[in-house]
Design a protein that fits this description.
Blueprint: H1 24-31, H2 35-45, H3 62-76, H4 81-92, H5 145-155, H6 159-173, H7 175-195, H8 202-219, E1 232-236, H9 244-255, E2 260-262, H10 269-279, E3 283-287, H11 296-303, E4 317-321, H12 339-356
Parallel strand pairs: 1-2, 1-3, 3-4
Helix pairs in contact: 1-2, 3-4, 5-6, 5-7, 6-7, 6-8, 7-8, 8-9, 9-12
Length: 358
């Protein structure tokens, strides 16, 4: 069979003979980007194959692919494609890098621009840019530069780049700032993307959440040893499976040396009550993502629990955290509205309990 003969379903085969080089489709699969991205980088920035074979099909050598891999690495850090292309071309030639044509259209997927958008005369249409986009159609607004790189890596499903970017953000900004200013805005943008596109990007949200969870676990210090009356219990309310915000809170408390008991998603009522009785915590934080799972009676029941000897009975301070508690405020119970506030409240509660303990 020839290089581009049709298969049994009428599609062109993209298998390249040995020594000829890779096709555009093969290069795209190797890089984890769309073929249109490779073609756009070729046409717009001059990152195409150095040599051409006969016919209209492009063939990419290892040197050509290495250039594109460098391009992917740069755009994954949040560098705009045009600037990344100038860097790549400057690194691979002693001649002055060719002028890079301005990208006139907004990007459609991570690190790529949508080709072919032209007016009736054939000229590229001028771009209409949002204040800040991740080169991906994700409207991020005014955010840190790291958000763009994380969004590109997530949309490319680039595991190694995503891990590196997340760990760097946490190391440079601290956990609370990294979550509030980098990770959460990116997660929210991905969530809006799949909600508005027929759930096309659900896998991206799951992928990003999984890697955020891994970065938190790798970066958090060992769990602090128990101190009587100083433990913090973290749990999702029954029916609630969104654990990532609680994982962030657990890591932030561990950074501050507070003993934490994390029980994760959808903890049944009986199990929650048992866990509280067994640990005798200073505080219990109940996470609810949805208003349908937030339960005032449950929060009030936990807050009324007592233990200890008569005359020195203690109760936990119960925090209702998460958007599910909006409009369902429980009188007398703290409801911090963000990670930093939740950490501050819990530090105060634990400190007060430690002072009160005999």
């Amino acid at each position: 069979m020839g290089v581009h003969e049709r298969d049994s379903r009428g599609r062109g085969s993209e298998s390249a003979p040995v020594g000829v080089g890779l096709t555009t489709g093969e290069v795209a699969r190797r890089l984890g980007v769309a073929p249109t991205t490779v073609r756009t980088w070729d046409r717009r920035y001059g990152l195409g194959p150095d040599a051409h074979t006969g016919g209209r099909h492009r063939r990419w050598t290892p040197v050509d692919v290495a250039r594109l891999e460098r391009m992917c690495a740069l755009t994954a850090t949040g560098i705009p494609p045009a600037e990344a292309a100038r860097t790549v071309l400057g690194e691979t030639t002693q001649e002055p890098a060719p002028a890079v044509r301005a990208a006139p259209v907004p990007a459609e997927t991570a690190g790529e621009e949508a080709p072919g958008r032209r007016d009736e005369g054939g000229a590229p249409r001028p771009s209409v840019r949002a204040r800040s986009r991740a080169g991906s159609g994700l409207r991020l607004g005014d955010v840190r530069q790291e958000c763009k790189g994380i969004a590109r890596a997530a949309l490319r499903l680039d595991a190694s780049a995503l891990d590196e970017l997340l760990e760097t953000a946490i190391a440079e900004h601290g956990l609370v700032a990294a979550w509030t200013e980098v990770i959460m805005p990116t997660l929210q943008a991905v969530g809006r993307k799949w909600e508005s596109s027929g759930e096309k990007y659900v896998e991206v949200e799951h992928f990003l959440s999984w890697h955020v969870s891994g970065a938190l676990r790798r970066g958090a210090p060992p769990t602090a040893a128990d101190r009587p009356g100083a433990t913090v219990v973290l749990a999702c309310v029954p029916g609630e499976n969104h654990t990532l915000p609680l994982e962030v809170l657990a890591a932030a408390l561990a950074e501050r040396g507070l003993p934490v008991r994390m029980f994760g998603g959808a903890l049944p009522v009986e199990s929650l009550v048992t866990a509280v009785r067994r640990t005798g915590p200073a505080a219990v934080a109940l996470w609810a993502q949805s208003r349908t799972t937030a339960s005032r009676p449950l929060a009030q029941h936990v807050a009324a629990m007592e233990w200890g000897v008569r005359g020195a009975r203690r109760k936990p301070v119960v925090l209702t955290i998460g958007p599910g508690w909006s409009g369902r405020t429980v009188p007398g119970l703290p409801r911090p509205t963000g990670l930093a506030e939740a950490v501050a409240v819990l530090e105060t509660v634990v400190s007060r309990q430690g002072t009160a303990s005999p």
